[in-house]
Amino acid sequence: MYHYVRGETPRPPSGYYHLDIGDFRAQLDYLRDEFTMLSEATFRRCLRGEQSPPTDGIVLTFDDGLADHHEWVLPELRERGLWGVFFVPTAPLVYGRRLPVQRIHSLVSEYPGPELLDALDEILEAADIDLLGDVRSMYEGRDTADSVRQFKHLLNRAVPDHSVSGVLDRLEGQFPAAQTDVSELYLSASQLRDLSEAGMTIGAHTVTHPVLSDLPTAAQRWEIRASRRQLSALLGEPVDLFAYPYGGAESYTDRTVELVSDAGFTGAFTTVDGDADATEFRETPLTLSRRDCANVEHGDATFSLP
Ligand SMILES: [Zn+2]
């Protein structure tokens, strides 16, 4: 699993979970030399239960529909004849809107956590926004890592959905280096088609990248089904792979998995750390585990929190 992969670029987020292009190249060479890189045909046979995945099999996946994937990733995959799956949220493409998740990454990468958290407190208090859930305990620690965690938690889980964009607008007003243009950050429709025409597979990743487990069933169903419909329309072909936003065990429920199945998806990935082995393919193909490539060979060189 990859997210941001980039070389020198002026656009945020910088230094935040991004993998440097040099490390990415080294990883691809290492993976190709040491493991079996699955073709799409083999991967699909494994999904259909027609064969077991090889124990050293690798499938490359890229989340969030980032422009990085066209600019930096695609040339490297092409050069090596490798296949990958790209999970693309549709709101940037269909509505021209940046998603809270990347706006938060940009803020956190450009400014110190304690400053961001103080500003967020003030904005929430001034706007008298009612927070969801018990967040009082979140305010205890104030070192940088804690404050970043709290900042993200508040915006991702505690500020009601309809208030998040407005709060982020105000934060970016105070922290302008975090502002990015939607077209610089995300894949355009033509870049998406380039990926597809180069033999890559495009999978759904909802419309707005919410924590699905926080949503009522009808809203989950819409996020799942609309993203599939919108992507299929953009590509002119069906989309049958899915990845859960955030993807940790707490980010989806059994009901979510049912909705993913009902929508017609045949394979889905979580971000639960582990190997998608033969048992997972056979028994739980809609909750396949992944490994974050920030944590494998050549993967940790640029990970840092401000
Ligand atoms: Zn994502």
Automatic annotation (TrEMBL):
It holds the Pfam family Polysacc_deac_1. Its main location: secreted. InterPro entries: Glyco_hydro/deAcase_b/a-brl, NODB_dom, Polysacch_Deacetylase. It comes from the Archaea. It is found in: Secreted. Residues 56-306 form the NodB homology domain. Keywords: Signal. GO terms for cellular component: extracellular region. Transmembrane segments: none annotated. This is Polysaccharide deacetylase family protein. It comes from Haloarcula salinisoli.
